[in-house]
Structure formats: structure tokens, C-alpha cells
């Protein structure tokens, strides 16, 4: 009631005199169980375990293919680079105490949400793993499994292990995204007091850290499963499974990633929008106070939602998309290799598939440009919408809905052209089956999707940049920083809204093109 009375009487007072809605002391940060267990291990023992783990990984990689070893090396280098980015971001100052105080409240809320949501996800994942185990124990085996001696029990264990690993990697990727964003936001706010360039650099590098971890976790998880199953099952040895059938054992990994992404997207997205709308209703509509005002406790929930919905959830979403596309491309490639003799039939087919990948890269660039055109304040559509908003709520809604419908036309055309062109390139690659039918069309679309996903790290970096900049603006406003600082964070926030829209469109494009070869 005290807040309501102050608003009605206009007795707002200074920032120090206003009621606080967040704690004054930094609480103990939440760490997942696996991180708490690792912290209890002696450093030397942990290093020995890591060395043994790396040795085992490179051993099974060397026993599989030099390409797998190369993949392991690239993933480890990417993780080391992410460690460097982490140290660089955390070395920046957090600003004055009032900024730290607000940031701590956001961090506590995000970690509390993560603890509740992912605790529920882990329990349901274990339950679903038991269901998958029972289903595979009672299902009939395929002819390929029977010929290789892979029984129902082994197939069930393999699928469950892949499912749990996919869920674990997806959960870790989501946690990393949230962990980075709740620590980078206050540092961006502090840097905005000095220069826009420094604030932009911190936000982009923090987003890049999360993006590299997400992509690296996807690739190394699939590579570990592939190499482990290859060595364990003795693939390509007499009486064993052929290497072209091995990707079929990896579907559980994509299912586990999809399971976590489903809950992360729904839970995080609903929380984000509910907190955003609730904060606006109770603040701007009912009380008539500005956005991100420190007198509105719901602002903290709004800022928490940016982290759990746009960072953790989006990271899990793209993790699932990348994993599913890699596995589907492997399955299509293996099926195509079984039906035709690639080197004898079409030694130059690689040129066609390279062009398919180039189509995917070009399409990704065009898609980013289209999203930027319809969401950036520098271009006509956003300016027209802003002009329509000056005449009232009705024209704002009409113009906004019309603009949203219009913005879907070009992406649909681009997606259609990319699918048809990549299918045609694969279809004309010269690969035919025993009946003489071309077999490379669907694989061409899969290669185009993989070409588009080659830009995933950059696009996800831009997505993580958005909520970090948004949080920074909220921290600046709630800590009553000078107007010049708020102007810098407002510009970053406007750019972040565009980059977040780019990632959403990117994810939908992946889904659209990925469905075609999967069918």
C-alpha cells in the first residue's frame, strides 16, 4: 500500500528513499548437482580424470576415423576459447552497489527458475527413459540389427543412453546461456557509464561465449556417441553392423535434446511473456509509472524472464535443431551410400552438394537481412508502425498485425526457392539406385540446411546479445543512472530486439527446411 500511496500523492522521493523490492545481500548462487560434485573433488584428481577422459575420447576417435579426431580437437579448442571469453567478461567491473544489488535479484530469480524447471525436467527425463527402455525391449528388431547381432536389450540400452546424453548436453547448454547472461548484464550496465563501444563489446562477447558452448556441446556429444558405438559394436568388421547403419542409433540423442527444448521453450516462454505483460499492466497501465521503474517489483520478474526465455530456452531450442539436422543428414547420407556406388557413378557429385551448402549459407544471409529490414528502427516498416502508433491503440494494432503478416511473404519465398534449388542440385548430382532413380535430392536439402547451420554460432550470439542488453537497460533505469547512460542502453536494447527476432526467424527456417528431408 505504501507504493500505491506514493504514486497517488506524487511523493516519489529520491532513489535511496524509495522502497526496495530486492535483497540487500548477495545470496549463495545455485549450482547444478554435477557442478557441486565436481567442486568436491581434489583439483589434482580432477585433472587426472580430465586427462583420462580426453585420452579415452581421442582413443575411440582414432579407432574410428581421423575426421572424428579432428572434430574432437575443434570442439576442445572452442571450449578453451569460451573459457577465455568467460575470464574476459568476468574481469570487467560490476559498477556501483545499487547496480550489483539489482543484478543479484535478477540472478537469484533466474537461478531459482532454473532450479525448479530443470529439476522437473530431469525427473521426467528419467521417467521417459524407462518408458523408452520398455518400448525397445518389446519392439521387433530390424533386419540390419539382426544381421549385426544387435538384440533388443542392446538396442534399448543404446537408445536410452543416447537420450540421456542428449538431454544432459541440452540442459548444460541452457544453463550456460542463463549463467552468462545474469553475470554479463550488470557489467554491460557499468560499461555503459563509460562508452557505448565497451558496453557493446561485453554484450557481444558474452553472447558469443554461450553460442560457442551450445554448438560445441552438440557436435562433441554426437561425435562421442558415434565413436563409442563404432568401437563397442565393432562396426565394419565381419558379421557386424555396417557404418551406414550406425547413424540410426543416434536418434535418441536428438530426442533427448528435443525433450529438454520443449519444456525449456514452453516454460521459459510462458514465464517471460507473463512477467512482461504483468509488469506493464501493474506499472505503466495501473500506476502510470515508467517502464523498469524501481518501485515496480514485477520489473525483476520481467528481467528474469529475459534470461530464462531468451537465453536458456533459445539455447536449448537451437541445440535441438542443430542435433536433429546433423543426425538426419547422417541418416540420409548413409541410406544414399547403401543404394548407390558414389565414387563409381558420380565422382564429381561433391560439386553439386558443395553448391547445396552454399545455397544454405546464402539463404541464411538473406533471411537475416529480411528480418533486419522488418524489425530495425532504421528501416521503413518500423518507422511506419511508429507513425501509426501516434494516432491511437487501434491504428497501432492494425498496422502491427498487417506488418507481421507482410513480413512472412519474403521468408516463405526464400525458403521455397532454397528447398527447390538444393533438391534440384542433389537430384542432378548423378547418383542413382539399382533401378536408375536419382537418390541425391533429399540429401541435397539436408546439406543446404547444414550450410545454413554453419552460421548458427553467430546467430545465437546475436540472440544472447538481446536479453543481456535488455537487462542492462533495466538495471540502469532501476539504479537511477544519468540519462546519458540510459540513452546508450536504449540503443543497445533496440539493436537487441532486432537480433532476437533474427534468431527466432532463423530457428523457424531451420525447422521448415529440416522437415522436408526428414519426411
Fold and architecture overview:
- The protein is mostly helical.
- The chain has one domain (29-518).
- Helices cover 80% and strands 0% of the residues.
- α13 runs antiparallel to α14 (393-406).
- It is globular, with a radius of gyration of 25 Å.
- Residues 1-25 have low confidence and may be disordered.
Strand-residue proportion:
under 5%
- Rg, Cα atoms, Å: 25 Å
Secondary structure tally: strands = 0
Structural class: mainly alpha
String of helices and strands: HHHHHHHHHHHHHHHHHH
Gap between N and C termini: 58 Å
Give average pLDDT, whole number.
80
Fraction of residues in H or I helices: over 70%
Query: What is the overall number of helices?
Result: 18
User: Which spans of ≥5 residues are poorly predicted at pLDDT below 50?
Assistant: 1-25
Judging from the principal axes of the Cα atoms, what is the shape?
Answer: globular
User: Could you describe the largest sheet, including whether it forms a barrel?
Assistant: none
How many domain regions? 1
Features:
519 residues, mainly alpha, 18 helices, 80% helix, 0% strand, disordered N terminus, diphosphate hydrolysis-driven proton transmembrane transporter activity, transmembrane helix
Task: Please write out the topology.
Blueprint: H1 2-9, H2 33-39, H3 43-64, H4 66-90, H5 97-138, H6 143-148, H7 152-192, H8 196-233, H9 251-287, H10 298-339, H11 342-345, H12 349-375, H13 380-389, H14 393-406, H15 409-427, H16 441-453, H17 456-478, H18 483-518
